[in-house]
Structure formats: C-alpha cells, structure tokens
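Homework help board

Subject: predicted structure for assignment chain

Our instructor gave us this sequence and asked us to write out the predicted structure in token form, then describe one feature. I got the tokens but I'm not sure how to describe them. Can anyone check?
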Amino acid sequence: MSYQVLARKLRPADFDSLVGQDHIVRALRHGLDAGRLHHAYLFTGTRGVGKTTVARILAKCLNCEAGVSSTPCGQCSVCAEVQENRFVDLIEVDAASRTRVDDTRELLENAQYLPARGRYKIYLIDEVHMLSTSSFNALLKTLEEPPDHVKFLLATTDPKKVPITVLSRCLQFQLKNISKQRIAAYLAEAMAAEGVEFEQEALDLIAKSAQGSMRDALSVTDQAIAFGQGKLTGRDVADLLGAVGRNEIAAVLEALGSGGAQAVVDVSTELAERGADFEATLADLLQALHDIAVAKALGEVGDSALHDLGARMTAEAVQLYYQIGLMGYRDLRVGPDPKTVFEMTLLRMLAFAPDAAGAAVPPSAGANAPASAPAATESPRPAAASAGAGRQRSAGVPPPSAAPAKRNAQSETLAAEWRGLVSRMDLSGPAKAVAERCILVEEKRDMLRLRLDQTHAALLTDEQGPAIEQALAPLRGPLKVVIETGQLNAESAAELRERTQAERQTAARRRFEQNEVVRSLVEGFDGHIIDAQYRGT
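My token output:
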C-alpha cells in the first residue's frame, strides 16, 4: 500500500479529535444535539487550521445512518464514505478553479434534486471568496432559501472578499490559529503513536515554524522524518528549517555579554555558514530578551542557560538591546544583505551598551561619531552613515541617564507598533494624515491614547477619532481612540517616510554626482548640476 502523508492520515474523524478549535466545536455540538440546523455555514481562518475538516465532520454528523447528532458512529457506510472522500451527496467544489457563473448555475440546477443516499445533499465550497461577482449573485437566492434537503458549507481564508450579502445569509465561524504549545503536544502524541523517536526541541521548532497551522506542522514533520532518517532531532530540524535553537541564541547573548566585536562577528559568520534565517534568528533573539526582561521584572527563573546570561545583564541593557533589535528587524527588509543588517544590529547593541550603572558606554575611538553627538547635527557625510544615524535616532539610543533610556525605548516601541497599524489601516483623506502624524503614547484594554504633532494640530477635527476607530476595529477590535496634541518624543509614520525619502534622495544625488559620464559632461562643458530627483518608491 502506498504511503499516506501525515496530514491526511491524521485528519480528525470527529469533533473529539479536533485540536485547538474548542469554541467552534462547542457551538456546533449544541446546534446538532438540539436540532437547530442552519442551511449555510461559513468557516474562516488561515490555511491548515481545520476549515475543510470541520465541514466534513459536520457532513458526517448530518448524514450518519444512526441519526443527526454531534457524535457520528464512524462505522456506517456513510461515515466511511465521507471519511474516504467518496460520499455521493457531499459535493466538494473548488471555487478557485470554478469561478464562472455558468459553473455556479449548473451547481444550483442540481440542488433541486433529492440526495441519492444521504439525509442531506451537502455542498462544500472551498475558497469561496474566489467566486466571481456574477457567481455570488447567482448563488444568493438559493443560499438564502435552499431546498430542505440542501446544506451549504463554505470555507475561506479571506472573508473580507466575500460580499456582505453572502455573509449575512450564513452562520459564521472563525477558526483560530493553533498555539505552538498545542501543536507541539499533538505532534508528541502523534510521533509516539507512529513509533518515531523525537526530541522535544525538534517538535518545538516545527510548531513554531508552522505559525498556527496544524497541516503545515504535519507536512514539515513528514519532511523532517525523511531528513533525519526516521528520527526527529533538534539539530536536524534546525538545519532543515534554517532555524536556530536555544544554544545558538545563547551564543549570541554570550557574544554580546563579552563586549567584544570579534565575538559578535564570529557568531554572525557561523550562523551564515549554517544557512540560518537571520530574520527568524533576530525574532528569536527578541523573544529571548523579552523572556529575560519578564523574568527580571517578576523575579522568576526561566530557561537555565538564557537565565544565567540574563542575570549578568542590567535591566536597562535588556531593554536597550530589545529596542535596537526591534529596529534592526525592521531594517532587514530594506538592508542590502540580511547578514550585514544582523551583524550591524549586534554591533550597535555593543556600541551603546549601558555599563553597570546604567549609563550608555560611548563607542570606541574608531567609530564614526561619539555617542553624545547631538541627534540634530546635519553635517555632510556618506549616505550609509546618514542612514545609520537615522536608525540610531529611531532606535532610541539613550543619553547618559538610566531613566530616560528606558522611557525612550518604551516610547519608540509604542510608536513602532502604531506605525505598523497605520500601514495596515484602510484610511484616506484627513483621517489618514492625522494617523500618520500621531504616535501611540498609551495602550489600555479598551483605549488607545495618541499624540498628534502640535505643528499639525489644525488637521484635527471631531471626525478624525471615530474614523480611526472604525479603521482600527478589524485589526484590534472595538477601541476608544483619544487624540491629544503636543511634542512627539518618537518618530511618526509620516516622519519616518519623510526621513527615508530624504536619505534616499541624498544617496541618489551623490550617486548621480559621482557617475563618470555625468562628471565628464560637467567637466567638459564647465557645467554644474542644478538638481537631481529620486524617483524610486
């Protein structure tokens, strides 16, 4: 018999086997047991969390020969055929490949006929958001008042693309991303049942890489078993994924703790030789710094190796490392090379590391500029140095005082969070202008307090707050937005954009001036350059 991949072999056959979707199971169980059956269900969520699986289990519950209930027998011919995906009255439609209105009309014409074997004829439409507008219009009337023997089960990863007229006719269920802990625990049970030797670190790495998707976790597990010749070890999985484990993160922190630039360069080179994903590595470093900061704040003892390293750091150093690392994580997307950006981030941590008393340690004599240099200095310098200085300012490099360092780091972290939200919010006009000129100064469970640059206070009206609240709701839920005016102590989204454009303009002009053809024209005709404009994005 041919091998069956784990994602198909271990697909849940009933609600009891479903992992991480307890809120969905509870609602469906009560509805089935009470006989409160809706004619259309919509399951939403990211890939691999169980949308189609839940729909198939529901189809089994509705058509089981033992009767409609939340616990199908699993033994009758209907349950077996649904499990094997060959039940004649379960019609699965891939909306991504059948988007035409003619396909939808053909589907609806067959809906009027009674089911061949089962109690209900069930239409399972996967990725329903891919249907065309005409197909949705053709579906609406039947979806609202289908024959008594028809049930619609819709699944999508992008419910925002489904027309509101369709959404209003369905019971909607949002499937959650599955936590790393639950994925790792499930994999441990599955590997024990499969007789595969494993290390817990390997399962933790797989669960982390899956990003909430159980199907992705099982697919990576299949690949890792083949890679490790029937075993799952942390080292093999890390090599397969280009990930790093606790030992590598501990080595990075050890290099930072030593205060030596050579140690930092060596550990960065070693990670590059292993083919490590520097974005994931920096994210793991930030997580480790977070864990150390929490352990210090609460007086708890975390992972032994990391805790020992963290014990030798001051709380100010941990906060500063985290803030610089956060800015480095952003720079990875625009930097010339991931290794270079990662290395520069670590070197910046060393350059501005606070001493035992909490004061910032100035860079060595060979650095481009002293740490105490005013941030507002605008002397001519190479474009790379200018960009680096801008990153230092946005990272909140501390003055020689412990308290302002912590405050600036927290302010910049909140500002960075708000810049990320602004980039994802659907705003336009004055509301967008206000949001881009604000920073986040306080975050509570039901309220965000923003500060608008006082030089743009004229933009603020009574309409801007509600508009921002409405755009923020799909991202963070219902929140009250309070906007005040004042001086900003961190960089707003508009300021970041303007600074980036100015740096690119300066670099573009310098490259233009240094171009050999341009220089020969200027010298040959005794000319001069009036202006040079950067036209990139």
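Reply (TA_rk): Your tokens look well-formed. For the description, you could write something like this. The chain has a mean pLDDT of 80. That's the kind of observation they're looking for.
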